[in-house]
Amino acid sequence: MTALLLTRCPALHAEVSRLAAAAGIEPRVLDDPVDALAEWSSAQVVLVGDDVADDLAAVGPGRRGDVHVVGISPPDAVFRAAVWLGAESVLDVAAAGDHLVELLTDVGEPAADGRLVGVVGGAGGVGATTLACALAQAGGERSPTLLVDTDPLGPGLDRLLGLEECPGVRWDELHATSGRLGARALRESVPRGDGPGVLTWSGARGSLDPTTLRETLSAARRGHDLVVVDLARHGGATTIELVGRCDAVLVVAPATLAGVASTARLVAALGGLDAPAGLVLRPGDVSHHDAAAATGLEVVHELGHQRGIAQSVDLGLGPLTSRRGPLARAVRILLPWTTPRAPRRGTARTGAAA
Q1: Using 50, 70 and 90 to split pLDDT, how confident is the model at 68?
Q2: Do 237 and 271 meet the contact criterion of CB atoms below 8 Å apart?
Q3: One fold for 3-104 and 115-337
Q4: Which PANTHER family does the UniProt record give (predicted)?
C-alpha cells in the first residue's frame, strides 16, 4: 500500500490519477468510507475527496498523519470535515496540482535516513577528494550511496570515477528546478555506474544555491543509506552550513608543521566542527598527539601513500580498485567510524602507514 484515494467523483478520480502518474505512482482508489477503514492505517498517504469527506468523518477513522482532503474547487463547508479527520490540508487539485505531485513524489519509498559524511582537506592537494571517492565506492558496494561534489574548483567527481560521459542530472539542471525534490527521482537521475551515484557539475561552475543544496541533500538522505560530501576548503558560509548538516566529518591533513597549522585555521573557520569530526593524517614528522592538540580533533587514522591511483583514475576505475593497500585499509576503518554506534572520542585508532 502506498497512496489511498477515497472518492466517488469520476472527474476528481481522473485528475488525481493524472497527478499521481506525474509523481510516478498509482493510488489505490475506493469509494466506500467503510471499506477505507481496513486500509486507513497502512496507506502512506491518504487523499480524501471532498465528496465523501463528511461520510468518512461520520465513520470516525482513527487519527493519523499524511491525510489531505482534495477536490475540484472544494466548498468552504468541507473544512469542518477536514478538521474532524485531522487532515493536514485541503487542496484544490486545479490550483495545487504541483503541490500534490510533490506530496506524492516519495510515496512508495521506504523510510530512510541515510548518514551524511563530509570530507574536507585541511590543506590543498592532500587527497581529501580521493578519500571521499573511495568511501563512496566502498559504500556503493553495500547499499545505495551518493557522492556529492560541492567544490566548484575541484576536478569533477564524475571524472574521478569514470562517469563523465554517463548521462544524468548535474547541479546545472537542479539549479533550474523548484519545489520538493523526490528521493527516488534524484537516485534514479544522477550519473551512476555499478557503484555510487555522483552529483557534480557539467559545464561552467558557480556557487551553489543554498535552497537547492538543502533540498538536494534532504532528498539524498531519504534515498540513500550513505551520502558522502566532498567539501570545499574555501566554501565559506556554504561549507559551514554543510558541516552543520553532517553526521560526521573527516578532515584530511598532512602531518607537517605547515599542514597542521593550515588545518587548525580551517577548523577554527568552520566554527570548531560541532559534528563528530576526526582527523585523517597523511605521513609526516608531526606526531598524532601534537596534531590532535593543535587541531582539537581526534586522529582516527593515518593514511599512507598508495601507488597507482592516478592510473586507476585515468582508466575510469576510480581510486579504490583493490581490497588491499592503504586506501582500502582506511575505508575499512573510517566507514564504521562514521556510523552513529561507533565511538567518536577517546583512544585514537590508527592504521599502519605504507
Answers
A1: very high
A2: no
A3: yes
A4: SEPTUM SITE DETERMINING PROTEIN, SEPTUM SITE-DETERMINING PROTEIN MIND HOMOLOG, CHLOROPLASTIC-RELATED
* Cell numbers linked to 193: 555506474
Domain ranges, ordered by start, for the chain = 3-104, 115-337
The CA distance from 277 to 32, in Å, is 55
At how many degrees (to 10) do helices 10-22 and 97-104 cross? 60
pLDDT in tens, 249-275: 999 999 999 999 999 999 999 887 766
113 CB contacts (<8 Å, ≥6 apart)?
A: 221, 222
What's the CATH number for 3-104?
Answer: 3.40.50.2300
Residues 6+ apart with CB under 8 A from 6: 29, 30, 31, 33, 36, 46, 47, 48, 49, 52, 56
The number of CA neighbours under 13 Å toward the Cβ of 256 is 8
Q: How far apart are CA 44 and CA 40, in angstroms?
A: 9
- For 90-128, what is each residue's pLDDT tens digit? 999 999 988 888 788 777 666 567 899 999 999 989 999
Fold of the domain spanning 115-337: Rossmann fold (3.40.50)
pTM: 0.75
